[in-house]
Structure formats: C-alpha cells, structure tokens
Amino acid sequence: MSFLALLLALLIEQTRPLVRGNWVHRSVRAWISWISQTLDAGHPRLAWTTWSLAVGVPAVIATVMHWVLIWLFGWPIAMVWSVAVLYVTLGFRQFSHHFTDIRDALDVGDERLARELLAEWQHVEVGSLPRSELLRHVIEHSVLSAHHHVFGVLTWFSVLAALGFGPAGAVIYRMSEMVSRAWQASPKPSKSWVSDTLQNAAHDAWHRIDWLPARLTAVAFAVVGNFEEAIDCWRNHAQRFPDDNDGVVLAATAGALNVRLGGEALRADSEDQVQDSESTPGRTPEMAHLPSVVGLVWRSVVLWMVLLALLTLARLLG
Hints:
This protein is mainly alpha-helical. The protein has 12 helices and no strands. It has helices at residues 2-15, 23-39, 44-73, 75-89, 96-107, 111-122, 131-162, 168-182, 196-224, 227-237, 244-257, 289-317. Helix 7 packs across helix 11.
C-alpha cells in the first residue's frame, strides 16, 4: 500500500501540481503562527510542548484518519487518504518552478533576472554574484529542496507506514521543516517573532528528524552518481557546510557530480555582501551541471521506488 500511495502521489503531483498559496499550506502556516503566539513564553519545557503540539496534532489527525478509514472501509480507501496526504507534503513541483525559471533566465543570458529570481526564492541579497557562484547556489538550494520536499518525506513515510502509522511520517517531517523555517530568528517588533528558546527547540528537533533522511539521500546520490567520489567528499568535506545534515547532502552531491560546492551560505536580506569560504573539490559550476542535478535527483527517486517495490513484493510473497 505504501508503494502504491507514493507512486500515485508522485504521478498526480507531476500532472496536477498544487497551486502556490493553496489552502492547505495557508492553514498550516496559520496553525504554526497561532500556536507560537499562544504558547510561546520563553520557557524550555513550554517550548518543547509548543513544538510537540505544532507538529504532533496534524500527525495524530493523519494517523487517526488512516486507522478509521481502514476500520470502516478497508485499505483501498485508506490508501486514498495516504495519497492525499503525500500529495500536499511531497513533490518536486512545490519548488521546481524556481529552478526552472532561473535556468531559463540563464539560458537566454539574463543573469540579472536570474539573480532576482534567486533572491526572491531564498529571500536573500545576492548583489553582483558572479555567474559561477550563482550557479553554485542554484545547485545547492535545488538539491536541498529536493531532499526536503521528496527524499526526507519519502524516508519517514516509509518508516512509519511500515510500523502501521500510515502517512504520519510524511506529516511529521514536513511539519518539522515548516516549523523550523517559520520560527527562525526575526526582529522582535515583528508580529511573527518567537523566543530564542522556541527557535532553538524547533532547530534541534528538525536536526534530529532530518539526521536519517539526510544520510539516506547522500547514499542514494552516491549509488546513482560517482560512488567513490561521493563517499570521499561526504567523509572529508561535509563539515565545511554550516549545517551538519545539509552538509552531508551537499558534499555527496559535489562528489557524485564532480562539481565545486560549499562556501558560506547566502546571507539574509540585512547583509550587504555574499562572501565565500573553503569549498569542496570539483569543477567550477557550469550550465551543464543543472541537467546533471535533475538527472541525479530523478535517478535517486527511481532507486527509492525500485527498492520499495522489491520490499513490497518480498512482503507479499513472504
């Protein structure tokens, strides 16, 4: 059932992607904002309670609905529910339009538009970023988006579905990522401001939840790319990135494609410049690397689906 749900969700998402600003994501953002404004008091224990409610309530609803549908109607209707949950939590089309627009701008030589699109996508100030650095950041953010929107959701959905919790894993992963992003540091006068304690709790929880998916994504990239270089880059260069989990994914990507990645991440809008630091070995990013990134991601998806199909078949025959 998990394999079929994933396959159908990916196919539907490719043909009928969610529109931007859809009511599901708006409702989730409103829920995250409301619960932080209601419960955030700066106390560590209350911070973890706030995070648990923000992530746990949607996950419990998804699980209970799954069990109720199985009890009342059987697994086919429960699978429809899993497909619906996966449709709003998993998918390339939730971010790929940014990648496509930037790539098209670069194809026609409009680097100014490409910089503007990157700045709008990541809410950063890019200034006069050189073409090679622009490509590097596009590759990095695209790979991380693919990990967060596809492979991370796929990992936890598969794990918890195997334990009988239906689509709860997909909800937990997506909500954890959205909560961590929504509760990042913001100016205190802002209506969306949250305490440092709650920010730290959300960041710590997200790091723990993303630990396993990040490493499975890196392994998948290594298998479908240059295996030896990907593993070597993972072992020796992942620590050059600011975030441990993102570093594993990006280092494996750099080795799998033989492309230079790394350096200091793009700064927030308040920063004036983008600085570079030590990067991974590899070729300077070029336009040819963009289709290579797309190929790497899709081959990894196929690898995941083949493995899930084999596990499903083994379970049915066993």
